[in-house]
Amino acid sequence: MSAHQPLTWHPVPVNAAVNIRWWLLHRDSLTQLIQQRCSKFWVDPVFQSLAPACTDELVMMNLRDSELALVREVYLYCNDTPVVFAHSVVARKHLQGAWRGLSRLGNRSLGTLLFTNPLIKRAEFGYKQLNIHHPLFKRACQRLQAPPLSLWARRSLFMLQGQPILVTEVFLPAILRLKI
Ligand SMILES: C=C(O[C@@H]1C=C(C(=O)O)C=C[C@H]1O)C(=O)O
User: By alpha-carbon position, which residue is closest to atom 14 of ligand 1?
Assistant: First the structure.
């Protein structure tokens, strides 16, 4: 993590425009919100493997620097356009526990797992405008013809049996074309 991109995530999306703010603040399933606005919603998994978490995730996930975690990264599509890049992290030690279903998720939305189990609780959101100095920014921009200078992202912990999954959602410019 470069010094240009401090580790902090904020409890409110300060200076976010009204249109993106609507998406950032919504606590319902992002999958459902997009499905309601698109004739074809689909999930394109681009990475799912044991890997180190981002530096600014270690404290929240109680991970040591080089400790491996299961990292899942997907693009959420509205028809032929990617609208969200999502990055989720689960500690390796919890893959046989609460989150054992994650490895078999494939191209189903994680939201179908997280929002159908009443025992899963979502914690508060953290917000950040990512730029070129954050590792998620470069990966989120890989399918954009004209990468912007920054992208709004939010993240939150989902807890099950005291075990966390940290879900980060990076909102791509095309999300603003969906009607709110
Ligand atoms: C948490 C949700 O699941 C979405 C789907 C994800 C996935 O399939 O990996 C990750 C984050 C979310 O954008 C949701 O639908 O709200």
Answer: 111
CA angle 80, 82, 86 (to 5 degrees): 145
Percent of the chain residues topping a pLDDT of 70:
97
By C-alpha distance, which of 23, 177, 169, 178 is closest to 110? 169
- As given in the structure block, the two tokens for residue 22 are 């609507």
Tell me, what's the ipTM? Answer: 0.95
Distance CA 145, CA 55 (A): 28
80 phi/psi in degrees, rounded to 5? -100, 10
Q: Is 175 left (phi over 0), alpha (psi -120 to 50) or beta?
A: alpha
CA of 163 to the centre of ligand 1 (A): 18
For the chain, list the domains and their CATH numbers: 18-177 (3.40.1410.10)
